[in-house]
Amino acid sequence: MKKIKIGISACFMHKDPTRAIFKGKTLLYNEESLAHWAMRLGAIAFMIPSVPEGGKTALAEYAEELDGLILHGGADVAPETYGEAPLKEEWKGDRVRDLYEMELFHAFKNIGKPVLGVCRGSQLINVALGGSLYQDIGTQVPDTLNHRDWHIYDQNFHEIEFKSGSYLEKIFGKGKFKANSIHHQALITQPQVQEFTM
What is the pTM of this model? Predict the structure, then answer.
């Protein structure tokens, strides 16, 4: 049986003249456990690099060659991407990565190939479809749970419940589940989209 080929968007470590290695170079990377998760499910995982302006390769070509896309976590989605100014300098996000991932998302979506958004990835999909975000849950949403705790990082868990009749409820069933949270942004307005079914 032929294995499916899954593309994973890259995280960006932008040029830094003070960095000890790869001084002044932009680095692209993936978080290892996400790639390993896709591989444990039987996929061949590929990191999709950014493409140079005026180059001979387009991101849409990756959509043609691969079976699906994972947009994963990392830097904040830039408020500028959903039409706002950052409320704090440290929440300015990564506009360069936003544009790269939105182009990737639309390339896969336009030809009907599946896209999974994990953490930042789900927020980016929401923005790419016209939604917006809370820039910081802790200061913009009263009485909320703590969604980011640097001391325990990805061991910060809280309960979730799937929307009745939703695709995820069909897969996982009814009830309460535990999910981890490392983020401080969240969906505020969501575009009306059709759920994809299998």
Answer: 0.83
